[in-house]
Amino acid sequence: MDRNTFTGLFLILIILVGSTYFLKPSEEDIKREKQVQDSIARTKEKTNPAANFNNQPQTAHPVVDSSLVKGPFGAAHIGTNSVVTLENEHLKVNINTKGGRIESVQLKGVKTYDGKPLVMFSGDENKFGLEFNAAGKHINTNDLYFIPSAPSLNVAQSDSSSVTLRLNYSEKKYIDYIYTLKGESYKVGFTIKTQGMQDVVAADQQLLTLNWDAVLRQKEKDLKSEQRYSTAYFNHADNEVDHLSTSKDEKKDLGEDGKIKWISFKQHFFSNVLIAKNGFDKGTLSVTTSPDTSVVKTFTAKMQLPFTRQEVSSYPMEFYFGPNKFGTLKAQGYDLERQVDLGWGPLKLINRFAVIPVFNFLKGFNWNYGLIIVILTILLKVVLSPLTYKSYMSMAKMRILKPEMDEIKAKVGEDNPTLLQQEYLKLYKKAGVNPLGGCIPMILQLPIIMAFFFFFPNLFELRQESFLWMKDLSTYDSFINLGFNIPFIGNHISLMCLLMTVSTLIYTYFNNQISGATGQMKYIGYISPIIFLGVLNSYPAGLNYYYFCANMLTFLQQFIIRQMVNDDKIHAQIQENKQKPEAQKKSKFQQRMEDYMRQQQAKPQQKKK
Prior knowledge:
Mean pLDDT: 82
Helix content: 40-55%
CATH class of the largest domain: Mainly Beta
Strand order of the largest sheet: 7-9-10-11-20-17-16-13-14
């Protein structure tokens, strides 16, 4: 090699080494390029998660003895359990390769009554799979082993990702379960895709049966209360939401009136919902109460999916695993919020369009829920104050008329009640007093009082919220634990229920003083609070607290009204009314009562004839 050749080669080497060094990408460039490639990969996965199934790391089936591999899906009958985890801000979902089913769901940031992580269901207590006939055999995918496309997914807040679990029949014939999870969601996307199964499924089979069984265990303090509000819900395609019985075991055939949009295994404060975007053709839904003291209820659903025998069939669905918070359920769509029992008829309308908006407004101030209940009660009492005033005035008039009514009673006697009532009506007419004036305002308030009876027990926001000595406003406060059961009372005494009962008895006493009630009417008012002590002793402390606050505010209202009302002026007004012409003072009610009295008097005379 001559000198010039050597010099040239040496210069070329220097150029190569120098360019490699100076043109090398920085660490920032490498990271940027990796993010771009990852983004491209995620985009491909979102658009067609099953397309890259063969390019993703998979958990292979174990090698099995060929003598054991017989019949349809032979190799899938043998395998080992492994778990694929999907996780986001709200959920941790474990999918078992056996059955390709969701094995357990944990709600993050939520605890059971005893402080344990809240798991919706777990293990073999949840069964999920397709059933159909193939090659003369009954197939249940819940018992077969799927191959996952990835071992786990951890989804960031603004991202979404998917994992596919495949049940192989042959290379070009398989069933895919595609699970999709978004970063900030209580929903898990779920799509069943069949490839080449039109020649595998029995020729006479036009429907695939999707089975879902779940055992839901206790999550709240009071098992009986949790059972009272737990049952199966379903939604017809025409948006008619209905449910099975909450008090007894029931099985119902669905789909007679059209397709079923979704089914739900509802526990008191949480729901497991399966939404079929194209609807289920029909099915059966059942709920049973288990003798197991830690089980709330057992749910079973057998839903039918149409099988059109195409090369590729797809069944898009999604799960909702989350709280029964009215606003959260409403945000999911599909009328899921109608699982929250707000009562019937007008009670539901009052809660949905009046109570909930006001409650949500007050909740925005981030006050303690005990304070919110007080403010809510005050607002209600202010709205109802005209009715309260009218009721008080009517009872005051009846009290002032009491001496005159006693004189009539002494004069007429009690042997002729029809004549006695006629004389009373004449007195009412002269005095311009409606004897039902005190009852009508109370009856008008009754729907609102009853609406709260449904509102507070179903209010998720009260769950595990404390106030004063009450550790959880969504359940009873155990002031005294008896250690034994008392009929209609239970094994405990709720202090807030006791305070509510005592305040109601005091209210009844003063109410009798205002109205001047005597005889049986005087004592009936004392019986109801005693009955409610037994009924409400196991109801949420928040409900009893509301009734207690309502009683206290009623005392305050009546005290204020009593300062404003002068009995002498009322008496003078009654005397003035007596001087007016009777024709101007006769009300429709009085006219009907007079007609009724005449009919009652005419009956004995007709019998004599």
